[in-house]
Design brief:
Order of helices and strands: HEHEEHEE
CATH class: Alpha Beta
Structural class: alpha/beta
Shape: globular
Helix content: 25-40%
Strand order of the largest sheet: 2-1-5-3-4
Number of helices: 3
Length: 104
């Protein structure tokens, strides 16, 4: 648990985070939100996708910040730049591909 403790660099990044649960596992988005909040992240919304999503990903809108890199290291999700997201700086999509290797 120590490696996932509060990270002041994440707090200083001031990146807003949206989580989308693209699986059938109820509560998965909230579990991830708790982990990220404990790390110092600012989770502003947790939502469930209307349809199943196969591939997990971390999407960012401006630049690949420390927070994006840290989340990638912890979660093992692919990272990509996203266009036209007016909701948050970072979007984490929980897909079915990583259900057997969740760190949360």
């Amino acid at each position: 648990v120590g490696r996932l403790a509060s990270d002041t660099s994440i707090e200083k990044d001031h990146q807003t985070i949206r989580i989308i649960n693209g699986t059938e596992v109820i509560g998965l988005g909230n579990r991830l939100a708790r982990l990220i909040t404990n790390m110092g992240g600012d989770v502003i919304i947790v939502a469930t996708s209307d349809s199943l999503i196969k591939k997990s990903s971390i999407l960012y809108i401006d630049k690949k910040t420390y927070t994006v890199e840290r989340l990638q290291k912890v979660l093992g999700y692919e990272v990509a730049k996203e266009e036209n997201n007016a909701i948050s700086d970072i979007t984490i999509v929980i897909g079915e591909d990583k259900l057997n290797s969740l760190p949360f």
